[in-house]
Design goal:
By secondary structure, the protein is of the alpha/beta class. It has a domain of 235 residues: FAD/NAD(P)-binding domain, CATH 3.50.50. Helices cover 36% and strands 29% of the residues. It binds flavin-adenine dinucleotide (FAD). Flavin-adenine dinucleotide binds next to helix 1, strand 3, strand 10, strand 18 and helix 8.
Length: 393
């Protein structure tokens, strides 16, 4: 079967769903092809901390009602290291900016609900297989659905298909450069039916490794500990896991039924050049950050703000200035966010062969941050989200 649309979007993660909504608001038609089924998308957990600009993007797109009602505004963050807890007044240091805790799962469900309500077409269980004619005016996305092959004819392709998708490899190898850093540790994450012990997120530096207390709602805690790569979630007895969280975080956590366990590996990755002809890649398709600093979904949203503006300017004003500079504009922000995520990760995590000197350097880094308004303000500025550098600085 042949389908037709203006913008073919591959992937119904936060990037693809938000783009379809922003285009819909501007009267531009799109079709989303999504490999998974709807139920799977609605239960996928992942990120939770949203930057000020991410919240604004969802609200401006008209999908932020529940986010504003149910999201938990955080005015600060706590660090625990060398046996003491410190508070960073993020709101005070950034002239009133905050982050909002509202799960990626929730905003995904909200955007799917809105898409269905407005008849934005999402074809579930449709796997994009091959892209054709990307440097022509009539690209085609070949996809499989229910065991047969179909074509989506379009004017532009938005590759929002995550790290393992087909969009990035569709940019010829000689036109892209990939930068990768693999970390030697992972995060063991749990979701527990327990009220968070602190209202704010707590990051802990401990000789046994990093730990994090976060939340998804006033009743649900999201906790992480650093673990070796290759850890099986079943390797840990639940009691031992809670004890280790208490030890590393430096306080007794509220305990409850663990309803989800997972291990996530950590990687920094950037694909330099995010466009080729009529293809534009966004979000995890183009870059990955380690979860420390909570930037993954936020970066996807900032790419989409640029891509949506570029496409809207093209269709409504015949102006391709932003679209032709898409990659450059996005990458000038992406590298700064990559730096922040890498720096927070290396400041808090303990390496297998870490020397006592390395540990002292980490403690001094964190000590400086907590004792200097300028150091703390730099952290806070990054945590609430950097601006988009439209002039690509
Ligand atoms: C286990 C895990 C935990 C995470 N935790 C955090 C966190 O705590 N904080 C944080 O900020 N970030 C976190 N992230 C990162 C964050 O979730 C991502 O950065 C975010 O989902 C990126 O959105 P996206 O839309 O670019 O990609 P995705 O959400 O990955 O969406 C891509 C979509 O494309 C679909 N797709 C792939 N290939 C095809 C194809 N060929 N055809 C059709 N569809 C396709 C996929 O099924 C998927 O639905 C986590 C990620 C993972 C994997």
């Amino acid at each position: 079967m042949i389908y037709k649309t203006q913008v073919a979007i591959i992937g119904a993660g936060p990037a693809g769903l938000l783009l379809s909504r922003m285009l819909f608001n501007a009267g531009i038609e799109s079709i989303i092809l999504e490999n998974r089924n709807e139920a799977y998308l609605r239960q996928r957990l992942r990120a939770g901390v949203q930057e000020e600009g991410t919240v604004a993007a969802f609200v401006e797109a008209g999908v932020g009602d529940k986010l504003i009602k149910e999201g938990m505004e955080h005015h600060g963050i706590r660090f625990h290291f060398a046996g003491e807890q410190h508070h960073i007044d993020v709101k005070g240091l950034t002239g009133g900016k905050v982050v909002t805790v509202y799960g990626q799962r929730n905003i995904t469900c909200d955007m799917i609900d809105w898409a269905h309500k407005d008849n934005i077409k999402i074809i579930y269980e449709a796997k994009a297989q091959r892209l054709e004619g990307l440097t022509t005016d009539a690209p085609i996305v070949h996809f499989s659905l229910n065991g047969s092959l179909h074509e989506l004819h379009c004017e532009y392709v938005a590759g929002c298909d995550g790290y393992h998708g087909i969009s990035r490899p569709s940019i010829p190898k000689q036109l892209r450069r990939e930068y990768v850093h693999e970390f030697e540790h992972s995060w063991y994450g749990i979701l527990a039916e327990a009220p968070p012990s602190f209202e704010e997120v707590v990051y802990a530096h401990h000789p046994n490794g990093f730990a994090l207390q976060s939340m998804r709602s006033p009743e649900l805690s999201r906790m992480y500990i650093q673990c070796p790569n290759g850890t099986d979630p079943e390797d840990w007895e639940e009691e031992a896991l809670w004890d280790e969280l208490d030890l590393r975080l430096g306080f007794k956590n509220n305990r409850g039924k663990i309803v989800d366990k997972s291990v996530a590996s950590m990687r920094s990755f950037v694909c330099d050049n995010m466009q080729h002809g009529k293809l534009f890649i966004a979000g995890d398709a183009a870059h990955i950050v380690p979860p420390t600093g909570a930037k993954g979904m936020n970066l996807a949203v900032s790419d989409i703000k640029v891509l949506a503006k570029g496409l809207i300017n093209h269709y409504t004003e015949k102006d391709d200035t932003v679209l032709s500079a898409y990659s450059k504009i996005c990458l000038s922000r992406i590298w700064k966010v990559e730096r922040f995520s890498w720096w927070v990760t290396t400041s808090f995590h303990t390496l297998e062969n870490q020397s006592e000197f390395d540990t002292k350097m980490q403690e001094a880094t964190l000590g400086y941050l907590c004792s200097s308004d300028i150091g703390a303000a730099s952290f806070a500025e990054n945590y609430v989200g950097l601006p988009i550098y439209w002039d690509a600085k």
